[in-house]
From TrEMBL:
It comes from Stephania yunnanensis. GO terms for molecular function: ATP binding; protein kinase activity. Signal peptide: none annotated. InterPro entries: Kinase-like_dom_sf (IPR011009), Prot_kinase_dom (IPR000719). This is Protein kinase domain-containing protein. Residues 17-90 form the Protein kinase domain. Coiled coil: none annotated.
Length: 90
């Protein structure tokens, strides 16, 4: 079942998130722990290494499609928002 996911274009994710620390680095990107300044909740943010140039390209990625179609399971991270922005931590 497709879930509705917030899609946002943003010039700088640090306006909404306080980046805390890099959790892991993999072949496709890095995962960071952050705090959502809107509600003070801890979140995980994945920065992809691939250069994505459009929403269509982003939403057609197998990883995004898979996360959007997952059911609710207690030990699975749920996709809440997809952002496109320029300033990616390294």
């Amino acid at each position: 079942m497709d879930r509705i996911v917030n899609l946002t274009i943003m010039s700088d994710l640090t306006l909404v998130f306080e980046m805390e620390d890099k959790l892991d680095e993999g072949s496709f990107g890095s995962v960071w722990r952050a705090t959502d300044k809107r509600n003070m909740k801890t979140v995980a943010i994945k920065f992809l290494k691939d250069h994505i140039t459009s929403w269509e390209q982003c939403m057609n990625m197998i990883e995004i499609k898979s996360l959007m179609n997952l059911g609710r399971y207690p030990n699975i991270v749920h996709l809440k928002e997809v952002f496109m922005e320029n300033n990616t931590p390294t």
